[in-house]
Amino acid sequence: MEFRLLGPVGVLDGRTGRLLRPAGDRQRALLCALLAHAGRPVRPAALIGELWGGEPPADPAGALHAQVSRLRRLLRRGTGGREWIRTLPAGYRLVPDAATVDAVRFTRLADEGLALLARDPGRGGTLLRDALALWRGPALQDSRGGPLCAAEARRLDALRLTALEGLYATALGRGRHAEVTGELERLTLAHPLHEPFHDQLMLALHRSGRRAEALAAYRRARQALVRAHGAEPGPALRARLAGILQHA
C-alpha cells in the first residue's frame, strides 16, 4: 500500500499493483489535504474550504461527511478493510505509516541527503537520487484542491529543486562539469526563474572551457528575470559573472 502525491494522486494497492484513483476533483483534493497533514487532524472548516472554496453546499457538514465516507470505502477496498481515516473531535485524521506515503519518504530522503552532502557527498548524493526517483510527474498533478493542497505542492516542488541543486553541486564539486551541462541546460529551460540552476550551468560551462556559452547563459537568465519580474539577477549570479569575466 502506497499513497502517491508525487505525480498523479492515488493509492497503490500492494497486493495487485493497481493504482486506485479517487474519482473526481473533490475526492482527490480530500486525499491530498489529509495526506498533507498525515497523522494530524484537519478541521472540517478547513476541508470544506479546500473542497468547495467560497461556494459551500447548503449542508457543508453533511456534504463533507459524504465525501469522507466515499474516500474511506476506496481505501478499505485497497487494503482489505483497514480503516485509515479517523473521526476526532478536532476533525478528520488520516493515519498512514510514514513509509506508505511517497511524499513523506521523499522529504525524509531529501533532508537526510542534503544534511550529508558536506561531510559525505557520495552517500548524500545517493540519498538525493533515491529521493528524486520517487517522482512520477508534478506534485499533486491532477488535484484541483484549495490552499492546503497548493501549499503542499509548493513545499514539495521547492524541496525537489533544492535536492536537484544539491545533487548537481556535488557533481560539479567532483569535476563532472561536462557530464552535467546538458542536464543543467534542460533545467534552466524548465525553470527559467530559478537562479541557482543558471549559476550552476554557468560554472559547468566555464570549467569546461566554454566561456562564451557561460556568458550567453547569464544573458538568457537576465532576460528571463527582467521580463518576468523587472529585476536584475541576484548577488550570487552576478558574482558568478564577475568571476568568469576576471578569467578572461
Q: What is the CA-CA span between the terminal residues?
A: 57 Å
Helical percentage? 55-70%
The helix-and-strand class reads mainly alpha
Assign the CATH architecture of one domain: Orthogonal Bundle
CATH topology of one domain: Arc Repressor Mutant, subunit A
Describe this structure in words.
This protein is mainly alpha-helical. Among the domains are: 2-96, Arc Repressor Mutant, subunit A (Orthogonal Bundle), CATH 1.10.10; 177-248, Alpha Horseshoe (Serine Threonine Protein Phosphatase 5, Tetratricopeptide repeat). It is built from ten helices and five strands, in the order E-E-E-H-H-H-E-E-H-H-H-H-H-H-H. It has helices at 25-36, 44-52, 60-78, 102-116, 121-132, 147-173, 177-190, 195-207, 211-229, 235-246; strands at residues 2-4, 10-12, 19-20, 85-88, 91-94. The strands form two sheets. It has a three-stranded antiparallel β-sheet. The protein has a two-stranded antiparallel ribbon with strand order 4-5. A hairpin with a 6-residue loop joins strand 2 and strand 3. Helix 4 (102-116) packs antiparallel against helix 5, helix 8 runs antiparallel to helix 9 (211-229) and helix 8 runs parallel beside helix 10.
